Amino acid sequence: xxxxxxRGRLDIREIEDVGDLALNAAQIKxxxxxxxxxxEKIEADAARTKLERLKxxxxxxxxxxxxxxxSAQTAINKADSQLPxxxxxxxxxxxxxxxxxxxxVDGREYSKRPEAVAGISEWVRSNTPEYGNYFRMQQxxxxxxxxxxxxxxxxxxxxxxxxxxxxxxxxTIKGVPAPPLVFSRTELLEGSISIVTRLENxxxxxxxxxxxxxxxxxxxxxxxxxxxxxxxxxxxxEDKLNQARAKCVELDDKLKASIEPAKSVxxxxxxxxxxxxxxxxxxRRLHSADFPTSPGKRGPAHSRPATHARSGINxxxxxxxxxx
Length: 324
Description:
The protein is 54% helix and 12% strand.
């Protein structure tokens, strides 16, 4: 495994796991006894593991092909649906470059960009709420301006808003399925000249967007062709994998048969150990038994010798044969 890492090849994304070839206790015993089946079993397991890894990669690739096919077809359908509207909008574009600038904001015509920006800011202040950007709740506020031959509509940004913003507004070209320009309401109220510049570029860039859609369609169709050429292909090493699995099962049976005698010997030894253990238990039981204690020491009640008082000479009292 370490050698595979140190080779530094970027085309390899998987490393063989040595844990797959770990021996169990029975195989270790067979190996120490010089059983040649052990090495053969290890080699067979390694070959089977490699083929199974290739099989998993093949199955995963087939699943990925299905997802790629759906994704590519969805992109093609979306682009095809947008092209007719773009093709109709492009001829209506009027150049506003340089001194040809002209815009209409809220019914008033402007030929100067700063004046048009001021008109847009005033329209936004009067026609949009301060906080109106709710995710998935799209609200149209109307046409803010006519620029480059097209009407520009304003709505809340909704799903196009930036993370955490409740003031984003989206400006779109009416009737054209192109991505919107997203501004914050504060940005529109401040009235920078860059706002008008971006709107002009948006209208003038519709032919470029059409070209992008056509390129996307061509790329996705090439992807579909490649997927269809590989979809449903069987695993080319299926026969070798079945043979490797069968060989492993055969070697397992042979190895098990070679280990059985060792198991029987171990069973006999275990029976002898049980007999020894029974004798040890008997010895411990006898050792823990109670016996009479010596005079003057107090032992268990059942082990003390009985005492008998009797009268001695001169009235001395004897207890157990001793004068006191």
